[in-house]
Write a structure and sequence with these properties.
The complex is a heterodimer of chains A (290) and B (411).
Chain A lengths: L2 H31 L2 E2 L8 E2 L3 H7 L2 H33 L5 H13 L2 H12 L5 H8 L14 H26 L3 H9 L4 H29 L3 H6 L11 H11 L3 H33 L1
Antiparallel strand pairs in A: 1-2
Helix pairs in contact in A: 1-12, 2-12, 3-7, 3-9, 4-7, 7-9, 9-12, 11-12
Chain B lengths: L1 H19 L3 E7 L1 H17 L4 E7 L1 H13 L7 E5 H9 L6 H4 L9 H5 L12 E5 L4 E5 H6 L8 H14 L14 H13 L16 H12 L13 H9 L5 E5 L4 H4 L11 E5 L14 E4 L7 H11 L2 H11 L6 H5 L1 H6 L3 H9 L10 H16 L5 H17 L1
Parallel strand pairs in B: 1-2, 1-3
Antiparallel strand pairs in B: 3-8, 4-8, 5-6, 5-7
Helix pairs in contact in B: 2-14, 9-10, 9-18, 18-19
């Protein structure tokens, strides 16, 4: 090997070693374990071929968890990016009190998820919760936020939106501030109205930032665990059971590590496909820009 | 010369450090009231053994199960004493994860109540002791004496009486639900259902170790349990211990089908309860069979891979001694596992329901002694909740649960 190639490799070696140890090795191990019946690792494991995958696909709870995860990911990501964009557009212009509004909007993001879920669990209480008190005060009937199977997943989305909109808001605000003011001036001189400026200039120029915010939020939403664990435990029934909860129960409550690995492999495939989709879009954008 | 002196000095320092390293006992236990009890016992034990270091982990039930199970599977010597819920103990004993306490000496005397002693041995009831009962938990039943008297109702003698009383009170007493229970998935919902299931003569696993929930008796039990929901507060599907206790102490419910001894002292505390002295505590009623209160003992054991077994055994003897059991009962309300402590005049004077509690404990039924219990409990909990929220017919829920339990038992 030429020394010109060796030097960069030497510098990259520590990072590659860590990547191999902490990412590639666990992935390969999980993939291999998914073909075994095992309660823990390979010791005492028995090879079962594709049996774990067949059992998963035949399990209605797994199918429900997959659907719930996809539904949550799409709904939460769309809401967070949409609301983040709206807030960024509202706050991007200078106005009195802006220096108070921005930190206030960002505040929920600095709270830990356990604190957030504790707050919302109290707010969601059917009899004494803040939300139902507001509804009652407005003459409306209270809502079974966490125990109506048709509503519980939306309650989880609401909590996720409340906590993570600040992230999408900040990404999109940064994007808005990176657009050159001259472009707007030129558009206005050409007679473009506010609606045209928003739809033909601002949004198209924000696409890479919207994609980035969507990628970050959808990957994070796809692996949702903590909020479900703390707020509903996957219930009522299976209404909020997600893939992460399903894998956790198989792995750490049942110690059915083979099945848990098979479910994790399916999760990785879906999440990988999702990430690849965004990555291709983002790279396409970059190559056009370049 | 300087080099030699330095080397000798370094060697001496290293030897001193090794000699000075204190003996350490690591205990993995529960949080909450049981954590307080362990903390009291640890402080008292340290007073007797000032040179001993004790590290104590306070964990939730689920957290403790995960941590100790993983440590046992990895053959780790991380813990010297572990707390175990009695159904977990079967797997721990069967897989050789616990030290044989008989071999370590000290014995387990007959003052410990018989059902708790039986689940501390493997094979159950006959083999050597692998654990010692620490918390004498038993699932109890509680009802509002004043409301029962107001509506001319006697203490419930069957689950049918419970349903009738729940109906009467929820219809006639404003702001009071007929009954309350834990409806949350997994352990909470199963725990409330089991005494009803057993009282109907049904079993999750039969004597031959086969899944047996697809029976008429189980269906009758399920239908009765579901009927209770009509008289329970809205949202009971998400209720756990806090909500049940709140409903009792706020006086907003007439009965609970499940009350744990650790919850009981606050019910008589006027600073915490709006109905002190008005709640009667007893064993859950029977139905086609006599009362079937569920045993919920917490045990203490020494992992087989502990490097400090003798010290661990000594601590366990101290923790479960009659003196410490009495102290923990009086100071923290920890339910004793020794019959003699239940007869102690000071203890009975403080806790008026102890005679009923010990009677329930003596007749308590353990959960199935199978190594797959945590899996079986989760499966049953899932289907009970699907039936409770009306997303599955009771018969279908039992049939599907039975099928999954059968598969779980086959591994």
């Amino acid at each position: 090997m030429k020394s010109g190639r060796l030097v960069p490799l030497l510098f990259l070696a520590p990072a590659l070693f860590l990547f191999g140890l902490l990412t590639i090795y666990p992935l390969v191990r999980v993939f291999l374990l998914s073909f075994f019946y095992t309660e823990y690792g390979f010791s005492g494991a028995s090879f079962v071929g594709l049996e774990n995958y067949a059992a998963l696909l035949g399990d209605s709870f797994f199918r429900i968890a997959t659907w719930n995860t996809i539904f949550f990911t799409v709904t939460a990501t769309a809401s967070e990016v949409g609301l983040g964009l709206l807030l960024a557009l509202l706050v991007s212009k200078r106005f009195p009190g802006r220096f108070i509004v921005i930190p206030t909007l960002v505040a929920p993001f600095v709270l830990s998820t356990m604190v957030v879920t504790a707050i919302w669990r109290a707010w969601f209480h059917y009899d004494f919760g803040f939300l139902n008190n507001v509804l009652r005060a407005g003459g409306l009937p209270p809502v079974a936020w966490l125990f109506d199977p048709d509503i519980a997943i939306f309650s989880l989305v609401l909590v996720d939106v409340w906590q993570t909109v600040p992230l999408t808001f900040l990404i999109l605000l940064a994007g808005l501030q990176s657009i050159q003011p001259e472009i707007y001036e030129a558009a206005r001189m050409d007679g473009a109205g506010p609606r045209q400026i928003l739809l033909r200039i601002t949004i198209p120029l924000l696409i890479p930032h919207i994609l980035l915010a969507s990628l970050l939020r959808s990957i994070d939403s796809f692996k949702i665990f903590d909020k479900v664990y703390a707020l509903t435990g996957g219930g009522p029934g299976q209404a909020t059971e997600t893939l992460s909860m399903y894998v956790y129960r198989l792995g750490f409550q049942f110690f059915d590590v083979g099945m848990a690995s098979a479910a994790a492999v399916i999760m990785i495939v879906i999440a990988g496909a999702l990430a690849a989709l965004y990555a291709v879009r983002i790279m396409k954008g970059e190559s056009h820009a370049g | 010369m300087k080099v030699l002196t330095s080397a000798l000095l370094a060697g001496a320092l290293a030897l001193t450090a090794v000699a000075a390293k204190a003996e350490t006992l690591v205990i993995a236990g529960r949080d909450g009231g049981y954590g307080k009890a362990l903390s009291l016992a640890v402080d008292a034990y340290k007073e007797k053994n000032p040179d001993l270091e004790i590290e104590r982990l306070e964990l939730t039930g689920g957290g403790l199960f995960e941590k100790v199970t993983i440590a046992m599977r990895e053959k780790s010597a991380a813990y010297d004493v572990i707390m175990l819920d009695d159904p977990w103990a079967v797997e721990f004993m069967a897989k050789g994860w616990l030290a044989d306490l008989d071999a370590l000496g000290g014995g387990v005397d007959e003052d410990f109540v018989a059902p708790a002693r039986a689940v501390s041995r493997y094979p159950v009831g006959t083999g050597p002791y692998y654990a010692v009962p620490f918390v004498g938990n038993v699932e109890l039943f509680a009802y509002r004496k004043d409301l029962f008297e107001k509506f001319g109702l006697g203490a419930p003698e069957s689950w049918t009486d419970v349903v009738k009383a729940a109906k009467v009170i929820s219809e006639k007493e404003d702001g009071v639900s007929g009954v309350v229970y834990r409806g949350q998935k997994a352990n909470p919902i199963v725990t409330g259902f089991l005494p009803i299931l057993w009282a109907h003569g049904a079993r999750i696993v039969d004597a031959d170790g086969n899944a047996s929930l697809d029976s008429e008796a189980a269906l009758e039990a399920m239908n009765l349990w579901l009927e209770l929901k009509s008289y329970a507060p809205k949202g009971v599907e998400t209720y756990n211990a806090t909500e049940v206790r709140d409903a009792l102490m706020q006086g907003t419910t007439a009965m609970t089908i499940e009350l744990w001894p650790a919850w009981a002292p606050s019910l008589d505390d006027p600073s915490a309860s709006k109905v002190p002295g008005k709640i009667e505590i007893m064993a859950a009623p029977g139905q086609v069979q006599g009362p079937a209160p569920m045993l919920g003992s917490w045990l203490v054991a020494v992992p087989a891979d502990s490097e400090n077994k003798d010290r661990a055994r000594d601590f366990i003897d101290f923790l479960t001694s009659p003196e410490m059991q009495k102290k923990l009962a009086l100071e923290v309300g920890t339910p004793p596992t020794r019959a003699s402590v239940y007869k102690d005049a000071d203890v009975v004077a403080k806790y008026r329901w102890y005679p009923n509690q010990v009677a329930a404990l003596m007749n308590a039924q353990p959960r199935p002694r199978i190594t797959q219990w945590s899996k079986v409990e989760t499966i049953l909990g899932d289907y009970l909740q699907l039936a409770l929220i009306g997303q599955m017919a009771p018969k279908d829920a039992l049939a599907e649960a039975n099928g999954k339990i059968a598969r779980a038992l086959s591994h």
